[in-house]
């Protein structure tokens, strides 16, 4: 590692600090020699002899890994909090360091601070400044948020990431952030009143892009949250009928073999896990049983990668990893099915998540992979000799866009506000289920309404 982070050597998928590598080797090897070699970069080689007798090596290894885990957990929320603090610009926050402040990033910053425990300590003046900004983004006419900032040309894949999707998402997160601040919007959600008609709501859901159930599940999540707001804040009791009808609709379409939703395209188990996560909290919060909990756990365990994470590829993603971790945590509370495997899977995920924290205190949405760092021989020679001027263009890391929206871009491996909420949230969930993995509880809390960030440590039972 270089200064605690990946050296960007293209053949190194994983790296460890020297002291941790030595601890790992000491379990079964006697260190004979340590060599430092310089070619196109710094290389450290260990020459070791296998011990003839290994005394209780598995236990020693577990103890040392536990020690490393405790060290990484110590102060990790404070480091995240400092990174988040640096992205605030008055009552607004940026998605990445040095980026422009946006409504979406501001919502993520509020929810990150709720999760890690700093939101409750905000002075009233700061709280009011953020609340004023959030409320100023709402349209008086229809109740949607930041509609003027959404353009079709800024969407990567307009078939699924369309302006309506982004507007609904902005409104969802604005509601959630205001709730975390113990506030409500200034104006009614006029656009959502059409969903009080059960036939319209069911038709809207049924006619959505179920060829991509992962994407469609987000739209359903937005709608369920809007219905909760209409019922609890605008006095529309009819919203509960629609809410329950939507849950019935979902149960009628649940796959009995996987416990998930695969849509018209018969999406993969992995995509089904990512979709189902957006539904489950609304069942648990309402006290509704979710059938096939054992199949759900089987499905999630089947998609874990060797690195402990759950994304489409090794290295994970802030959203995908949370989807799987939250589902394992919730359903392990209602069934003992494969309990040891679930615990081990969560521990593996925790250890990997802690390694993802960047030196600046933030977390990446998607960490760098070896394939992202591949460079030509010409570039490696030029980099090694310090003569990069001979190259036609600089080496650039791949970029990702949150939710396919170009205004929310970041280089792979770069700390983002989305990850500053979702990575600590995933860690909090694992520790809530396995408190023995930490020496003391981490500060902060879960969100109090269903959707992203919500968790009840004593969920309602499920039916087989």
Outline the structure in words.
- This protein is mainly alpha-helical and 464 residues long.
- It has two domains: 1-55, no CATH class; 56-437, Glycosyltransferase.
- The chain has helices at 18-26, 57-73, 76-87, 103-116, 124-136, 163-180, 198-206, 213-233, 238-252, 269-276, 280-286, 293-302, 318-332, 339-355, 377-385, 417-433, and strands at 29-38, 42-50, 88-89, 92-94, 101-102, 399-401, 409-411.
- The chain has a three-stranded antiparallel sheet with strand order 3-4-5.
- The relative contact order is 0.13.
CATH topology of the largest domain, what is it called? Glycosyltransferase
> What's the alpha carbon Rg, rounded to whole Å?
24 Å
What is the rounded distance between the termini? 48 Å
Number of domains: 2
Structural class: mainly alpha
Give me the CATH architecture of the largest domain, please: Alpha/alpha barrel
| Quantity of strands, as a count | 7
Features:
464 residues; globular; single chain; two-stranded antiparallel ribbon; Glycosyltransferase; mainly alpha
Please sum up the structure shown.
This protein has 16 helices and 7 strands.
Topology, please?
Blueprint: H1 18-26, E1 29-38, E2 42-50, H2 57-73, H3 76-87, E3 88-89, E4 92-94, E5 101-102, H4 103-116, H5 124-136, H6 163-180, H7 198-206, H8 213-233, H9 238-252, H10 269-276, H11 280-286, H12 293-302, H13 318-332, H14 339-355, H15 377-385, E6 399-401, E7 409-411, H16 417-433
Antiparallel strand pairs: 1-2, 3-4, 4-5, 6-7
Helix pairs in contact: 2-14, 3-4, 4-6, 4-16, 6-8, 7-9, 8-9, 8-10, 10-13, 12-13, 13-14, 13-16, 14-16
């Amino acid at each position: 590692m270089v200064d605690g982070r990946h050296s960007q050597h293209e053949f190194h998928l994983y790296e460890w600090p020297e002291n941790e590598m030595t601890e790992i080797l000491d379990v079964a090897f006697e260190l004979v020699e340590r060599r430092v070699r310089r070619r196109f970069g710094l290389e450290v080689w260990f020459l070791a002899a296998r011990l003839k007798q290994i005394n209780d090596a598995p236990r020693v290894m577990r103890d040392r890994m536990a020690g490393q885990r405790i060290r990484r957990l110590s102060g990790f929320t404070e480091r995240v909090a400092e990174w988040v603090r640096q992205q605030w610009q008055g009552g607004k926050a940026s998605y990445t360091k040095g980026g422009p402040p946006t409504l979406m990033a501001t919502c993520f910053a509020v929810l990150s601070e709720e999760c890690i425990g700093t939101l409750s300590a905000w002075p009233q003046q700061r709280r009011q400044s953020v609340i004023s900004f959030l409320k100023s983004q709402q349209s008086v006419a229809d109740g949607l948020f930041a509609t003027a900032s959404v353009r079709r040309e800024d969407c990567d894949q307009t078939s699924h990431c369309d302006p309506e999707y982004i507007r609904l998402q902005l409104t969802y997160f604005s509601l959630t952030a205001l709730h975390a601040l113990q506030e409500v919007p200034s104006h009614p959600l006029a656009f959502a009143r059409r969903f009080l008609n059960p036939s319209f709501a069911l038709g809207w859901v049924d006619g959505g892009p179920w060829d991509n159930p992962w994407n469609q599940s987000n739209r359903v999540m937005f709608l369920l949250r809007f219905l909760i707001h209409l019922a609890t804040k605008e006095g529309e009791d009819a919203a509960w009928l629609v809410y329950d009808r939507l849950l019935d609709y979902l149960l009628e379409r649940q796959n009995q073999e996987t416990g998930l939703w695969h849509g018209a395209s018969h999406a993969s188990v992995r995509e089904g896990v990512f979709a189902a996560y957006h539904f489950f909290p609304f069942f648990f919060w309402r006290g509704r049983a979710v059938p096939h909990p054992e199949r759900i756990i089987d499905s999630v365990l089947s998609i874990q990668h060797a690195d402990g994470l759950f994304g489409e590829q090794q290295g994970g993603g802030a959203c995908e990893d949370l989807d799987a971790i939250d589902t394992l945590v919730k359903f392990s509370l209602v069934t003992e099915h494969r309990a040891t495997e679930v615990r081990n899977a969560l521990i593996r995920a925790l250890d990997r998540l802690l390694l993802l924290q960047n030196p600046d205190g933030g977390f990446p949405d998607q960490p760098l992979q070896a394939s992202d760092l591949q460079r030509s021989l010409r570039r490696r020679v030029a980099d090694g000799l310090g003569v990069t001027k001979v190259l036609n263009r600089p080496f650039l890391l791949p970029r990702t866009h949150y939710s396919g929206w170009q205004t929310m871009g970041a280089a792979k491996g770069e700390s983002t506000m989305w990850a500053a909420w979702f990575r600590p949230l995933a860690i909090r969930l694992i520790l809530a289920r396995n408190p023995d993995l930490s020496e003391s509880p981490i500060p902060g809390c879960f969100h109090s309404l269903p959707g992203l960030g919500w968790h009840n440590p004593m969920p309602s039972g499920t039916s087989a």
